[in-house]
Amino acid sequence: MKNQKIKWGIIGLGNIAHQFATDLLLIEEAELLAVASRDILKADEFATKYNAAKAYDSYEALFADQEVDIVYIATPHDSHAELSIKAIESGKHVLCEKPIALSYKDAERMIEASKKHNKFFMEAFWTRFIPAVQEVLAKIESGIIGEANYIKADFAFIGNDVEGSRLFDKNRGGGSLFDIGVYPLFLSYIVFGIPKEIIAKAVYHKNGIDLQASMILQYEKAQSILNSSIVSESDMKALISGTQGRIELNSPWFVADGYSVFNGEQESVYSLPTIGKGYAHEILECNDCILNNQIESKLWSHQNSLDLSKIVEEIKTQIGLNFF
Ligand SMILES: NC(=O)c1ccc[n+]([C@@H]2O[C@H](COP(=O)([O-])OP(=O)(O)OC[C@H]3O[C@@H](n4cnc5c(N)ncnc54)[C@H](OP(=O)(O)O)[C@@H]3O)[C@@H](O)[C@H]2O)c1
Fold first, then answer.
1. Cα separations (Å) of 119 from 78, 89, 319?
2. Structure letter (DSSP) for residue 240
3. Residues 227/263, Cβ–Cβ less than 8 Å
4. Do residues 309 and 107 make contact, with C-beta atoms less than 8 angstroms apart?
5. pLDDT at residue 152 is higher than 90
6. What is the 13 CA–ligand 1 centroid distance (Å)?
7. DSSP 8-state code for residue 158
8. 195-207: per-residue pLDDT in tens?
9. Are 241 and 150 in contact (CB under 8 A)?
10. What pTM did the predictor assign?
């Protein structure tokens, strides 16, 4: 398969599918072959806009297309598990949007399917592949801020609570934790690993989903103070501090175009723009893994997704979030 273009299919043609398709077109080694929507007019329009050869009126029809190598699942949270498993069982590699699933059990089922059918599967944690984030992780590892011992990070914006909004819809896995809380949790996990203890509190919507969640992750020698909100806003910088200095990721940190390192009086500024909107990097990773016959990424592995899902599950339990 070397030197061949990887043929992509996209299902669920909403907001993120458009962003993703824009970046996919930037990558020479990738081809957007097929798209699927529950509405054929939407699929036709999307296919025309992004030059996809095929448009389907059902996700299953795209799964059955023998020419599609990998399916990007861009549907709401509640459908990630079933659709990923169906796609894998149909012989497709899968890149599934975050959060991987609404329960740890479902995340396990998805990964079991990948292993059983020997198909690549990755949760679309695009931030892991952003050049600034990659470089910051390497610098922390090199000891540039001494021993890292503190993270302050959040993801917060004022969402529009109108009829049909996915973000506020309990049936589709809405709320701040699953939609955006996973980002600061990801940062803490990727730097410090699995916490020893978690303390979480939330503010709730009348339907029971969390509008705002604050979390403390306690480690042997470190702490992370994290927040997510769909009813308040922040500057969305992320701070990682250590015994000899600190790093600040530019806002919005989850797609940072650079960062600064502060050591005493000295500030060093680094600029690392993303390719396109930032999704290109995870797309390149999927292509590489598929070409190398890997069923998981080394940078955002199955175990990484399971660990993060377990952390989220603990917070979900603490704040009493019940989707079903
Ligand atoms: N990585 C990122 O930066 C990022 C950013 C935003 C969102 N996301 C993730 O991407 C996923 C989709 O988010 P989005 O903002 O693109 O959502 P969205 O605009 O609502 O689009 C989701 C699409 O999923 C399909 N769908 C299938 N079942 C549905 C249902 N029951 N209700 C509504 N739509 C349904 C629809 O496509 P059809 O009508 O075409 O079938 C819809 O357009 C979520 O998991 C979210 O967390 C990631």
1. 22, 9, 35
2. E
3. no
4. yes
5. yes
6. 7
7. B
8. 999 999 999 999 9
9. yes
10. 0.98
